[in-house]
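Self-study notes.
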Amino acid sequence: MENSFRIPKGWFVSGDAPAKYEMGLDTTVTYENRPCVTIKARPDPTEFATLTQSFKSDAYHGKRLRFSVAVRSADVENCAALWMRVGGVDGKMLAFDNMLHRQITGTNEWAHHAIVLDVAEDAENIGFGILLSLNGQVWMADVHLDVVGPDVP
């Protein structure tokens, strides 16, 4: 199936069933007059799909990072969520948050969400993104990845 959205530079498609979703830049929905990225379920979606970025963590060793974005959702049946992962040697997971206990469901106007993780000295890479599981559509805008102090929970 062809994707009607263009994947923005620096982002890639991932997840358990990315072919069951359309993902990329949606120029019809804006946030502060800028287009947004979206994940939209195709008919009969399964599992989940995610728009992702990943990079080497060297510059962030020993620091605390906050991944924050504005999210809008429409008819999200199961869940939508931000996620962030700090990985180590041989793919070992050092830190992970996928908003398990604060998932986005239903239809919601723009709201800011954030994930904060500590980056271990032996971290190799950092990945982050937004995911959609089953029916609905989610939009993401105003993406920030910031170093924050230990006072930020």
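Second protein, same conventions, sequence then structure:
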Amino acid sequence: MALTQVTGDGLATSGLPTGAVLQVKSVTMTGSQSFAGTTFTDITDGTNALSISITPTASSSKFLLYMMINASADNGGSRFGFRFLRGSTLIGNSDTVVSRTPVAAAGTGSDSNAIDRNISMIFLDSPATASAVTYKIQGNVESSSSNLLINKSATNANNATVYTATSSFTVMEVAG
């Protein structure tokens, strides 16, 4: 019979197969956010930031990141993008090509009463540490004269046929 080590919180860590889920943390943003400019900004409604701190069970662990963001942009067809960070390190983003901005996912606004895009992205990160890590999501919009809007439409009219939404960020620790 194989021996299994049990951690202080009762989690058996040895003997688990690669790919076993060790812990899950998630945050849901129910309010809205709006900001202008081309600078990448943390996604938060002031109460719920799409940011998660997690301490690995082992340095061999991997982390599966899943973001789901409802976004719009005003000022016509303004483009917007979202990126993952581990601390201050960009992860899971495209390669930098000439002067193009690398992001994990992107969309385009329509300047309407509809939420323009439901943006989803999954990334598997291997931080190779047993120390706590913080993952977060940032977004930007292409023009300083445009606004990126989270969980609401560009015009956001006050009637029953205009929807508000939620956005979420989930991090799962997976045995490596």
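Instructor comment on the second fold: The mean pLDDT is 89.
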